[in-house]
Amino acid sequence: MEQWYFGGVSRRQSEDLLKGTTVGTFLVRDATNHPGDYSLSVSSDTRVRHYFIKRLQNGFQIADQDFEDLPSLIEFYKIHYLDTTTLTVPAQRPAE
């Protein structure tokens, strides 16, 4: 499993994990209200931003961009801005 995939983490939990991290720190989680879809949570200047990732028949869509798979989406946004920042590093998992 990818280091950035946090599964069933809630929106609130993702905000707690990303609060105080470097701008661009991110994680992907299951979308709470849309089974089979995902959310990308990203630390920005002033808050944590959440982006809906829709599962398509042959890939994924975020905003108006389509991708073959989630790793391609992540790699694209490490180079290109997603609103206010690029993706930098995956969030750290809490110690168990």
List the helices and strands and how they pair.
Layout: H1 11-18, E1 26-30, E2 38-43, E3 48-56, E4 59-62, E5 65-67, H2 70-79
What does this protein look like?
This protein has helices at 11-18, 70-79; strands spanning 26-30, 38-43, 48-56, 59-62, 65-67. It is 19% helix and 28% strand. With 96 residues, it is an alpha+beta fold. The mean pLDDT is 95. The protein has one domain (11-79): SHC Adaptor Protein (2-Layer Sandwich). This is CRKL protein. GO terms for molecular function: receptor tyrosine kinase binding; signaling adaptor activity.
Key structural traits:
5 strands; 96 residues; alpha+beta; 2 helices; 19% helix; SHC Adaptor Protein
Largest sheet strand order: 1-2-3-4-5
Helical segment count: 2
CATH top level? Alpha Beta
Alpha-beta content class: alpha+beta
What is the overall shape? Answer: globular
Oligomer: single chain
Instruction: Give the H and E element order.
Output: HEEEEEH
Strand content: 25-35%
- Indicate the radius of gyration in whole angstroms: 12 Å
- CATH fold description: SHC Adaptor Protein
Please tell me the CATH architecture by its name: 2-Layer Sandwich
Number of strands: 5
Q: Whole-Å distance between the termini? A: 18 Å
In short:
The protein has 96 residues and is α+β, with helices and mostly antiparallel strands. The chain has helices at residues 11-18, 70-79; strands spanning 26-30, 38-43, 48-56, 59-62, 65-67.
